[in-house]
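Entry type: protein chain
Record version: 2
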Amino acid sequence: MISQKTEQARAVHDISCGKALRERALGRAGSPDPVPPELISKVAAEIEDHCGHRRLKCHRLAKGWTVAQAVAAAHQLVDDEHLRKVGMSERSWKDWEAGGLPSPDYQDLLCRLFATNPVELGFARDYSVTPEADGNAPLWIGEGPDGTLFEGDAACADAGSRTFTEVEATKRRDAVKLAGLAMAAPAAAAQILEQAAAEAMEFTQQAEATSLGSGTLDHLDLAVTEFNRAYSLKPPKAVFDAMMDYRRKVNALLKAKHTHQQERELLAYAGWLSELLAWLAHDLGDARTGLAFATDAFVHGQQAGHGQLCAWAMDAAASINLYEQRPAKAREAALKGLTEAPAGHPLTVRLHAQAARAAAADGDAEGFTIAFQAAEDAHRLLPPRSPRRFGMDVMPLADYALTSYPATSFIWLGEAEQARQHAEHALATYEAAPAASRSPSREAIARIDLAIAHAQLGDPDDAVTLGHQALDSARVVDSVRNRAGDLTSFLTRRYPRETAVEGLRERLAAVDAAARPALPAASSEA
């Protein structure tokens, strides 16, 4: 098998070449189904020797997988064997095939996937000393009185013709010398080994050295879980202050002594806290802070190798940009999130719907139709069991996106009747949700969408009534006030002499004024 250095230096073949090699190899083997791992390994070696791809790619081609199929197979393996959930994405896989080194956890998963070891996938090198003969040569297991190596296969000791040359024997002795043992006296060798044992213990202690208490990570998991539950139920200001305090503490823990595994977990918790802080800042009316935390969550997700976290961060960024009337930026964030979202996850539905909503905000009816169709297609392909995020079912977030986002989109596209139908469906869906899953702010926005649709259809009275109901919500956050502003602006233009319209506009102005205290200062540590 060629070396990785040689592999990288020479031109590589098109993947069609590797596919052809696979087909020929499977044909020679009688087209077994399933293909045994040892045959996959041989095919991968042949592709590497002939085509010059890196070893991970060779194994993928030997399996006959596209990158998307390989990532899907990895996630399926995690589910089948009840392994720890991962955020592997196509982007991550492509980085690894280009020479990036996966984390130890991902290396373990990839080795399981291909039933092989890190050396065979190009993640490590094999430095063991092996005979420089052909694969049929016997093992050399002994050393004579003069230091010359001899064969261990006594049955083949005919005429002494298979002894090592002096050059080969010298190479072996030199290799052992490098270990510091071959030329040492027994007492000296024992001292070297004793010192090595002490150093090994020091290496282990250093790898395990940490400032984290035994329950710190468990405590963080519980805290992030509770913050997720509190998000829709408690005032944003109170939750923001408490969560910001935790975010600073995680930042301090990242600067302290910890193991590599703990670092990845801390990076992920930092990212999850920042993702929630992005939404809270948005709710409190500070888009700049919200986008800063969304970016922070994305970066920490990348550092932790957590694609799903990256995708959630971009979902937040897409919504914030939409409310800031930056549809192009919202669409960009949604598409960026889709490159990181796990295959077959409800988050993919939501991100496609975000892209559709952004297209509608930009007046792109065709773009909306295409993106929303992708959201519906992704929804149909979701598995029967819905994943959970910190103990909460995430499927409703996909369902809500398919009901409320098109209502808003059709309003922006001027399709009042379709907007009314979708808004009524969205409101019915929200109201039918279990109490623990209810979202007062989403219900309020659905009422405002329905109100605007009524106003567009020539019914200002129902529009005003629905507007007041929305402002009666237990959670009138910035996004609700923003959409209510759209409603009152439209009503004022269309029905300038309606007293009821002026009453709604004045009520919104009072709610706005009461909700404008400054957002708590977010430390630069975030």
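Comment: The longest strand covers residues 140-143.
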